[in-house]
Design a protein that fits this description.
This protein is an alpha+beta fold. The chain has seven helices and 19 strands. A hairpin with a 2-residue loop joins strand 10 and strand 11.
Length: 342
Amino acid sequence: MNTLSNTEKLGWRLPDRLQSWYRVCGSRDLPSGGVLRWDLPGRSFVLFRGREDGQAHALAAHCAHMGTHLAHGTVSGDSLRCPLHHWEWSGDGACRKAPCAETAPGLRQRVFPVTERYGSVFLFNGPVPRYPAPELASAAEEEIRMLAGEPVRLRCPWPAVASNGFDMQHLQTVHGRALREGPVLERLDPYRLRMRSTLTVTGQALEDRAVRWISGDRVRLTVTCFGGTVIAVESDLGRTRSALLLCLRPVPEGVEIVPVFGVHRSGLPAWDALRVHLARRLYTGFIRKDVAFMDDMRFHPSAGGPFDPVLSEFLDFLRQLPEDGDAQDEAVVTPRRQTQHA
């Protein structure tokens, strides 16, 4: 007999994966000629960086020829060479070389959009991006210095983590913040939701006292959800501005969160390095409060809405996000012609 999860009983069905932008790794983690495996539930990808063009590319992980996992392959020029028969796949999915064929076969490897920003590689797990890749509202990319933190894994559904930034009761009870102005919600498009508010600090922890002193107890906060998988938190404390990207990935046992911390550049690299580490410490103290109790959480989304109109609207936003329901990894097209063996 099939059993329903708690969220399904409450009218929610949690998708295994959304069709959205995901942070895969830091740009430095994919050097020239590098190959990297990256997975979502039910789907595997391979990323590589060309030796000549220096571009990052993402393909379906299993070779369209015989199904070998291409993460075991090597980069040849700007193509990825399969370890089994040395067929070479370019970043656009075309087979550029097959050693035992007179001409390149008509098979194609499935391609996924990739972009790099804020020192990170982002992948969209669909043929064409539905919305722009995650970006901060307060500054251009070149104006921000970013630093990635260590991944955190929690045994809870990904919507539970995504919802925290829009849960006003939780902001007050756990994080010691109270509203001065707002919040104001804005749907940028069906895949992006932004909230702006001004807060006062009511918490008494060391990090809270530091924020209260720096900000004069007036924190301007902008929170943007990108497709359910990236939450951008931007804080304006008056004397300084900082940012946090919370990058989510569903994993079989729950969700993985990678925090990326940022500060606005001052023109003094050593000072900016110190400031971004300070931002990391302050944000980490903020995040740690959630990690302490969210592990093994059972998420009841429909129970929270009536008491918090902001959270209710965010949950409606999540419900409308597109699920990636295509289970075929390789997406092989019909070959143009039969290959001839030498």
